Amino acid sequence: MITVSEKQAMIEDFERLILVSPEQIITESKQGRMIVEGSGLHIRVFSADEIILSGQIRRVKFDAK
After folding, report:
1. Which phi and psi angles does 58 have, rounded to 5°?
2. Which helix (H) or strand (E) holds 64?
3. pLDDT digits (tens, 9 = 90+) for 2-52
4. Per-residue CA distances from 57 to 30, 48, 65 (Å)
């Protein structure tokens, strides 16, 4: 599940981070990959249950398996 606002995104039920950069963050789960694109992206909270991102979020794409 993902919740997105203009400045923040929260991703739950992920299994691993694939890529973290200021322009793109990619996570993977059993359901597929989630790609968050933007500028100035950074991880505010990282725990076993959720990731909370901040920055200018332009697009969120989900590639189902």
Report:
1. -100, -40
2. strand 50-64
3. 667 666 777 787 888 899 999 999 999 888 899 999 999 999 988 877 888
4. 24, 23, 24
| Sheet of 8-12, strand order | 2-4, 8-12, 50-64, 32-46, 24-29, 16-20
The predicted model scores a pTM of 0.79
CB 25 within 8 A of CB 15: no
For strands 2-4 and 8-12, give the pairing: antiparallel
The residues facing 35 across adjacent strands are 26, 61
CA distances to 19, 44, 47, 48, 53 from 31, rounded to whole Å, are 17, 24, 19, 17, 20
The length of the chain is 65
